[in-house]
Amino acid sequence: MKVEFVLNGKKVVVDVEPNETLINTLRFKLRVKSVKRGCERGECGSCTILLDGQPVTSCMLLTMQVNGREVVTVEGLENDELFKKLVDSFIEEGAIQCGFCTPGILLTAWAGIKQGRFKSRDDVKEYLGNLCRCTGYVKIINAVYKVATGGAGR
After folding, report:
1. 25-52: buried (b, 16+ CB within 10 Å) or exposed (e) per residue?
2. Cα separation values, 144 from 78, 104, 108, 136, 151, Å
3. How far is CA 81 from CA 19, 71, 111, in A?
4. What gap in Å lies between CA 9 and CA 75, rounded to an integer?
5. pLDDT tens, position by position, for the chain (154 residues)?
6. Residue 48: half-sphere exposure toward Cβ, Cα within 13 Å
7. CA gap 139, 63 in Å, rounded
8. Domains of the chain
9. What is the distance between the alpha carbons of residues 30 and 33, in angstroms, rounded to a whole number?
10. Which residues, at least 6 apart from 108, have a Cβ–Cβ distance to it below 8 Å?
11. Strands (E), the chain
12. H helix count then E strand count, the chain
């Protein structure tokens, strides 16, 4: 079946199987490499994308569910000023180690900042559901909070 959606600002049309997950379509058919395969149960957040502006796990979505919708990955935010500030803050705070979880965390953080959710570090801690096995979260929380409160950027 054909599915049409907007991916990172560009309309795409792709043939998919009825049971094909969005992560498989993105990685294997559309060659989006920032979306990582982790737990495949929607728990780790490594496959996070923005669907109509909301962070969701792409391993739990069938591709046909995004028909007519907007999907954004980190590749689609490369020129976004807020996204650049987040990346800079992650680097400055040492919030990146192996980098496997980073794209999903950046997308979730970007959405949370855009929605004005972060009034405290505890707000960041509660909103970010992505798992990271390297950093211990403190540096990630600090990096996100710094941008949310206007303390980082290029």
Report:
1. bbbeebebebbbebeeebebbbbbbbbe
2. 17, 13, 10, 14, 10
3. 36, 19, 13
4. 10
5. 999 999 999 999 999 999 999 999 999 999 999 999 999 999 999 999 999 999 999 999 999 999 999 999 999 999 999 999 999 999 999 999 888 999 999 999 999 999 999 999 999 999 998 988 887 799 999 999 999 999 744 4
6. 24
7. 34
8. 2-76 (3.10.20.30), 79-148 (1.10.150.120)
9. 9
10. 45, 48, 55, 127, 128, 129, 130
11. 2-7, 10-15, 48-51, 54-57, 70-72
12. 5, 5
For residue 54, give both structure tokens.
């909301």
Token duo for residue 73: 């990955």
| Residue where the block lists tokens 């987040």 | 86
State both tokens at 104.
């999903």
Tell me the two tokens of residue 137: 């979260």
> Model pTM greater than 0.90?
yes
Residue positions counted in the chain: 154
